[in-house]
Amino acid sequence: MIYDISMLIEPSMQVYKHELEKVPVFKTIQNHSKGNAHETQITMNLHTGTHVDYPLHMIENGKTSDAEDLNTLIGPCKVLDLTSMDDNITEKDLRQHMINKDDFVLLKTINSVSEEFSNNFIYLEASGARYLKDLGVRGVGIDALGIERAQANHDTHKTLLSRDIVIIEGLRLKDISAGPYTLYCLPLTIKGVEASPARVILEDL
Question: Does some domain include residue 26?
Answer without folding.
Answer: no
